[in-house]
Amino acid sequence: MHIHILGICGTFMGGLAALAREAGHRVTGCDAGVYPPMSDQLRSLGIDLIEGFGADQLALSPDVFVVGNVVSRARLADGTPKFPLMEAILDAGRPYTSGPQWLAEHVLQGRHVLAVAGTHGKTTTTSMLAWVLEQGGKAPGFLVGGVPLDFGVSARLGKGSAFVIEADEYDTAFFDKRSKFVHYRPRTAVLNNLEFDHADIFDDLAAIERQFHHLVRTVPGTGRLVVNATEESLQRVLAEGCWSELARFGAGGEWQARGTHDAFDVLRQGEAVGRVEWELSGLHNQMNALAAIAAAEHVGVAPADAARALGGFRNVRRRMELRGSVERSGGAITVYDDFAHHPTAIRTTLDGLRKKLDDAGRQGERILAAFEPRSNTMKLGVMAAQLPWSLEAADLSFCHTAGLDWDAAAALAPMGERAQVAGAVEPLVAQIVAAARPGDHIVCMSNGGFGGVHDKLLAALRAASAA
User: Fold this and answer.
1) Are the C-beta atoms of residues 444 and 455 closer than 8 Å to each other?
2) How many angstroms separate the Cα of 428 from the Cα of each of 67, 217, 373, 451?
């Protein structure tokens, strides 16, 4: 089969492309705004990429066009289609489907699907679960919205019956407005947390809760729901109906942790059943671990083995990924890359780093947060008022304001001199370099390429050190 993927460089569609290629299909695709790590992964697989959505791609005549949710029927100011290829497909009556639908029919059918849903932590928890199953001898397939460092790829078919998938609540395609995850039909479903997000497609939190309950409805009676016991929103979802075994984690749940965030016992019904000792920090990662351990048990991995496996977990690219450091007299300046793009995720990332530094007796080392409000929700300004709260753990914050229709400087005004804004990456880098001093930790947060800010920062810091 030849499939041509529209929007191939998105994390989900890129993973789908990798799976289709591994399964022996011919895969081509198109997109705009290509950036690593997905572009690197696709090229390494020998998948041909075409820049843009030109109608001339209709001549490729694939068996089916697989349409990503980046594609719409939108028109430009001059009245021409923003996605002329999609218009050509519709006019010619060519076969097309969505990515989740293609995946459900060609990859997930007959597998034990373990789906990880939630506003935050999906990628990390999915990666943890895949790693635990791998170490437990299950040889799982997986599709992750990032690149787990332990595997080096975002997706693979696997050899066992288990398939672990990051279950996104975002809509499926312009012609299917259901959440992606309703296509997956999991036997094990993790509901990690649930907050308001995706303001471009959901009116309010209740609308997202409704989609989560659609997911709950698809889990069989012999399946397992692994649910964060501390989230009121998830309790409301379950109150709408639950027909599967329920395993709750966190305070008030059957699965809990005892100890520090980087060394803790795993408790089930108050009994220690495993111990995790790792390099990760933060309560959020401890909760992610509990979810992964409870889900893995459902496919036969003992909690003690799962906890031991997590001791070797190396996290995911762009999750507090160290990009480099510049030595200076008095201490190095360190630059990290993180995917955080929702106020809660920003706060969680920065709080985790602050606690890690404090626990190590390094209270004097500063955190500098560089971020761009790039997600659809953040671009709309719906959560602008939460930014000062999300950045409380940072000593200084720097906001990239390009493409915003709202006043970021006004939103950050409560932070006073602790916050600066810039309309382009280069002046933002200059602001950070001017403020940086030995021992600082610079955390760059975005769900996009951020204009290559990490390399530009490191180069500018080195140049400043050499001057």
Assistant:
1) no
2) 36, 47, 14, 11
Cβ(42)–Cβ(8) below 8 Å:
yes
Q: What CATH number should be reported for the domain holding residue 55? A: 3.40.50.720
Query: Which amino acid belongs to residue 238?
Result: L
Among candidate residues 39, 121, 5, 13, the one with its CA nearest the CA of residue 449: 39
Q: What is the DSSP letter of 108?
A: I
Whether omega before 95 lies within 30 degrees of 0, making that bond cis, reads: no
Please write the tens of the pLDDT for every residue from 401-460.
888 888 888 989 999 999 999 999 999 999 999 999 999 999 998 877 788 898 999 999
Residue 51: φ, ψ to 5°: -80, 125
Q: What is the CATH number of the domain that holds 262?
A: 3.40.1190.10
**H-state helical runs in 258-373:** 283-297, 303-310, 343-359
Give the end of a domain, one of 44, 70, 99: 99
Q: Into how many domains does the chain fold?
A: 3
- From the CB of residue 331, how many other CB atoms can be counted at a distance below 10 Å? 15
Q: Looking at the structure, do residues 278 and 371 belong to the same domain, yes or no?
A: no
Q: Which of 310, 345, 373 is the last residue of a domain?
A: 310
Residues 244 and 326 in one domain: no
- Chain Cα centroid distance, residue 29: 22
pTM score, whole prediction: 0.78
> Does residue 300 sit within a domain?
yes
Burial-class residue 109 by CB neighbours within 10 Å (0-12, 13-18, 19+): exposed
